[in-house]
Amino acid sequence: MNKLVITLALALAALPSFATTSIKATVNGMVCAFCAQGIEKRVSSMPATKAVYVDLKKKTVAIEAKEGYSLDAKAITAEITDAGYDVVKLETVQKSVEEIKAEIKGGK
């Protein structure tokens, strides 16, 4: 019985995680569509990035990781800062960019 439990636990641990990991950043200094486009282009070019959403009104940038990749918060902050904007808050969330976008557009 113990061997079965250990084997099952090891098998479950080997399964891929289906939770989507994203970083949600609050960014000051974005004032126009050109600002949003610049940030989106820079962050999209990073190797671990699957999707990016920028909302000027809410000052939010959401970045979703590709499957099997981890997002580097320091590198993302550096990209946004190098583009001339101020990252005031970063949080890791278990949501896709589409889910974050729906929340923002829904006013939640």
Automatic annotation (TrEMBL):
For this UniProt record, the keywords arranged alphabetically read as follows:
Signal
The signal peptide here is 1-19
Keyword Zinc-finger listed: no
Matching entries from Gene3D superfamilies are given as:
3.30.70.100
Q: What positions does the domain HMA occupy? A: 21-88
Per its UniProt record, what Pfam families does this chain match? HMA
Q: Does the keyword Signal apply?
A: yes
This protein is called Heavy metal-associated domain-containing protein
